[in-house]
Amino acid sequence: MLFTSIAILAIAGLQLSQAFAPQKHVSFLRAASSSTYMAAADAAFDQEQFNAKGKELRLAHLEEQAMYALKISCENYGNAVFPNAMIAGDCVITDLLGRLGYLGENGKAKIMVVDTFHLFPETMDFLKTLESKYNFKAEVFCADGIPVNDKAAFDKRYGADLWKEDIDEYDRVCKVEPFQRGLKTLNTDCMINGRTRWQGFERAWIDLFENAPIGGGLAKCNPLAYWTLEDVFDYMVKYKIPYHPLHEKGYPSIGDAKDTIPVPEDGSVKFVNYEWVGDKTIWLDYAKERVGRFVGLKTKDGSAKTECGIHVDGAERTWERDLWEDGKSAAKKIKSVDEAIQVKDSGKPAVVVVYAPWCSFSQKMEDEYEAFAKAVGGEVDVFTFRGDEEREFVMENMNTKSFPTVNVIKADGTVVKYESEVRTVDALKQFVDATLA
User: Fold this and answer.
1) Which of 29, 168, 338, 409 could serve as 350's disulfide partner, Cβ 3.0–4.6 Å?
2) What is the pLDDT of residues 108-166, one digit of tens each?
């Protein structure tokens, strides 16, 4: 009786397994040979094929989602602008905009590029490739008052080592200000950008649409918000779109040449001719896309730098006001190179501090120098001169290699630099007296 019950349960179990098995497996369940069944099951369960199909379906969904976001941006706003840094995700967005017909002379989206004057040479050359393929002309913006492509003019006005002196001010001058000026110049009402949740915890909760903290707020579209970096490269492979040439030299993301490195540094991981060389997971793991960016840079609080400031509220302000405000300070303000030359050639002794308002050392000496100006009264003229935007002049005429620099100008026009970093009232008075004696 017990044997009969077990037999009945076994038959029932077999019938139940048959009922839930794929139809193509049923005949194998009835086969006499278990080895034949296992071989057929393995053939039927093609893991690689199923995974490939799953990735195909995922990418198709992400494409549809991204196109939906771009259509909202371009069809419902009059001036959609895409600031394009030509990194991997930006190349995907460029292609999507092209497929949708939003680029070109009469397109509904404009491409904007910020040239920091510190980009890799390959970057601006690659821009020409994109312009040619998608039939658009990018609007290029750079540091205020500097012609496009004129690095020498930038160095003359702002200094080639600005980024070493104050990285926040460099970001403001070279990235944030031209970025925001570009958006305003193009009358942007919807900004498209390539940020993704996959890029790290700072961006882990972004959505397709946000309100950007720029100019009082404007619509911000993140069409790739839910994409991984693997999705981005899968798209590149699928459509064979142009990608930045530095991916072939080991760079997962591309920024300024001064602080961007290959990952790993030996360049053993690359993306060449739409195929991976080396262990791609080193690039594709969570938050790894930008690990080669901002290398060696620190914020003012000493923490590692992870953002350039473009997407951060208030980043356009690295200093709140000018120092020794005109009309309020006992020190007289030199407002131009011509005025500086007049002071130098006046035949009267003077004291001049050459400063930069963003420089923390300049900020720290403001009160003491103000007290010094009041203390010397009418004995000698005391001046201030903002020199960070007249680098060449102050280097050649005011002994200035860093900020602040205090000089005593003798009656004959000789400029004598105060070498000490002790900038108290008494120390400054002693130096002036000794120099003019």
Assistant:
1) 409
2) 999 999 999 999 999 999 999 999 999 999 999 999 989 999 999 999 888 899 999 88
Nearest-angstrom CA–CA distance, 46 and 125:
44
Burial of 36 (0-12, 13-18, 19+ CB in 10 A): exposed
pLDDT < 50: residue spans in the chain: 1-32, 314-318
Per-residue model confidence as pLDDT tens digits over 325-336: 888 999 999 999
Local structure of residue 257 (DSSP, 8 states): G
Q: What does the CA dihedral 385, 317, 301, 323 come to, rounded to 10 degrees?
A: 20
Q: What are phi and psi of 407, to 5 degrees?
A: -125, 145
Cα 202 from Cα 136, distance rounded (Å): 32
The span from the first CA to the last CA of the chain, in angstroms, equals 125
Q: How many CA atoms lie within 13 Å of 31's alpha carbon, on the beta-carbon side?
A: 15
* C-alpha to C-alpha distance for 11 and 30, rounded to whole angstroms: 12
Quote the strand ranges of 107-250, DSSP E: 109-114, 139-141, 190-192, 209-212, 218-221
Note the pTM of the prediction, 2 decimals: 0.72
Predicted pLDDT of residue 45: 80
